[in-house]
Design brief:
By secondary structure, the chain is α/β, with parallel strands linked by helices. The chain is 42% helix and 11% strand. The protein is built from eleven helices and nine strands. A nine-stranded parallel sheet has the order 8-7-6-5-4-3-2-1-9. Strand 2, helix 3 and strand 3 form a beta-alpha-beta unit. The mean pLDDT is 95.
Length: 286
């Protein structure tokens, strides 16, 4: 699954290239299609990502290749409950127009705070506007919800908060889309540029993982990505890129497959259970 937030805005703490030009978006999508990627993740809140996707797919002749998952625009803080159905209707109508489609393959809420509105998404599914519905989770408070048909969760080598939920969902044939593979770039940020909070807590563990990767003859990025590939409960690993070259490297890593059991055991021995505020980007110090 290819994340496309970068198509609509400059995104990521290590993004040095800014929002990509249309030609680069087209090159990324061609590389994705050639490499076997067949799902795009987007949202109304991702700038003009949906419009950029539609234009690039049309230019590349790939309109029928990709499934598309999008998300309802986040509710304004002052939106009353009585206004949510109209807001949802407007959001999906705008998304379908932007994507130049009559139906999306998946429609999610952007945050667990909208869980009580899941029946409203089901109405859209019954009308044929989406094939499946779900939600994107973020905080520990949502880990114990009943499994949904589709769920996007944060997950990486340092963040295992939703592993049990993913297992329960997989047992119910729910789809699990895992985002934040590299913890929004924090796993690669130069040590001197890390906030002091991370230098004191996450950095020592990151160094141990980097050493472990070196001992195994792997680059750190490969260790991090293949760690997620090794979890059979995950349906898709959602990764965004800034260039075709980054995507080609991800595809090379995927071809290498899961990590050996012995290496997984060593990782589990290195990584502790961190407080949520350290591994949840929305809780980070600014």
């Amino acid at each position: 699954m290819l994340g496309t937030v970068q198509f609509g805005m400059a995104y990521g703490i290590n993004n040095q290239l800014g929002k990509p030009a249309p030609e680069r978006i087209e090159a990324i999508l061609r590389t994705a299609a050639d490499g076997g990627v067949n799902v795009l993740d987007t949202a109304r809140n991702y700038g003009d990502s949906e419009e950029q996707i539609a234009a690039a797919l049309r230019k590349c002749g790939l309109q029928k290749h990709f499934k598309i998952i999008t998300k309802i625009a986040a509710f304004p803080a002052d939106l009353p409950l009585s206004g949510r159905e109209a807001w949802i209707e407007q959001s999906i109508t705008t998304s379908l127009k932007a994507l130049q489609r009559d139906q999306v393959d998946g429609l999610l809420f952007h945050h667990e705070s909208a869980l009580e509105c899941m029946p409203l998404l089901e109405k859209l599914r019954e009308r044929g506007l989406t094939r499946l519905t779900g939600i994107s989770l973020d905080s520990n408070q949502a880990r114990d919800i009943e499994p949904l048909a589709a769920t996007q969760i944060p997950g990486n080598i340092l963040d295992r908060r939703f592993a049990q939920y993913a297992h329960r969902a997989a047992e119910h044939k729910g789809l699990i889309f895992v985002r934040s593979v590299y913890l929004q770039g924090l796993l690669f940020k130069p040590e001197k540029q890390l906030h002091p909070v991370f230098q004191e807590t996450l950095l020592p563990v990151r160094r141990k993982l980097e050493n472990l990767a070196g001992e195994a003859g792997l680059k750190s990025a490969e260790l991090y990505f293949r760690y997620l590939l090794s979890n059979p409960d995950f349906t898709c690993i959602l990764s965004g890129v800034d260039s075709p070259e980054q995507l080609q490297e991800n595809l090379r890593i995927v071809q290498a497959g899961v990590l050996p059991a012995e290496l997984l055991q060593k990782i589990d021995g290195i990584v502790p259970e961190f407080p949520e505020e350290l591994i949840r980007p929305s809780s980070w110090p600014r």
